[in-house]
Write a structure and sequence with these properties.
The protein has 257 residues and is of the alpha+beta class. It contains 6 helices and 18 strands. The chain has an 18-stranded mixed sheet that branches.
């Protein structure tokens, strides 16, 4: 089985978020896909099957299958454009939740993803304990968004992952206004086997409409403040969001089973 490792949301290797990508001729078992993801030990491994005009895609962390993943979708589109002789300017995907697409213009890839609206929720003692600092407020959807005053507070967070792993949400997004960009964030998902994800496309499905509303603008720039960092170019588009970034290939190999 061919396997690619791609750094997403960056223009250089060792930056952004690494994802493994496994193109398949036909589906293998969920158990085997999870074993491969565990062996890769990256935040996500994407598997896809070409169904003619569309690719069926699935994503696995080292611990479980997840319902939506941005950076591994960007990485998959990069592989399809660069190595699988895809001539059209757009790659279309289907997944359990609907449809996605990724378009290419020069070296910039733009994902068309669903917008995720959130509702305000209680700032719990568990959240404060897990993040080590009390946010201004919290919003919830699949993930929980914790809003802080400024970029430095996001940088200074030292989470207690054992506490965050006990929350009901798949991921915890810490976010604040940026100093040189519109907003910054970090993403913690110990429940999914990922203490801190370097760059999280799916989190921006929630972040983009939130900050578009706060800032009163539809076009935004964002930075995810992980050790590897990631740069995202964002647009709020009603019930969809556009998330753009670059991707580079780190490794090409074969899985021997």
């Amino acid at each position: 089985m061919k396997i690619f490792q791609v750094d997403a949301f960056t223009d250089h290797v060792f930056g952004g978020n690494p994802a493994a990508v496994c193109p398949l001729d036909a589906w293998i078992s969920e158990e085997l896909m999870l074993q491969i993801a565990m062996e890769n030990n990256l935040s996500e491994t994407a598997f896809f099957v070409n169904e003619g005009s569309i690719y069926h895609i699935r994503w696995f962390t080292p611990a479980l299958e997840i319902d939506l993943c941005g950076h591994a979708t960007l990485a998959s589109a990069h592989v399809i454009f660069s190595y699988l002789n895809h001539q059209a300017p757009t790659v279309r995907f289907r997944y359990a939740g609907g449809s996605l697409s990724v378009s290419r213009k020069h070296d910039l890839l733009t994902m068309d993803f669903p917008s995720i609206s959130a509702i305000e929720t209680e700032v719990t003692a568990q959240l404060v304990s897990g993040l080590g600092k009390k946010p201004i407020k919290a919003m919830k959807a699949r993930d929980l968004l914790a809003l802080f005053k400024n970029e430095q507070e996001i940088r200074d967070l030292v989470p207690d992952f054992s506490v965050l792993a006990k929350t009901e949400h798949l991921g915890i997004i810490a976010t604040a206004p940026g100093e040189k960009v519109d907003f910054v964030s970090r993403f913690f998902a110990p429940r999914a086997g990922i203490n801190e994800d370097p760059v999280t496309g799916s989190a921006h499905c929630m972040l983009i409409p939130f900050w578009a509303n706060v800032l009163g603008k539809s076009t935004l720039r964002a930075t995810q403040l992980s050790a590897r960092r990631g740069e995202l170019f964002c647009k709020n588009n009603d019930d969809r969001v556009l998330i753009s970034g670059k991707a580079v290939t780190y490794m090409i190999g074969e899985v021997c089973l």
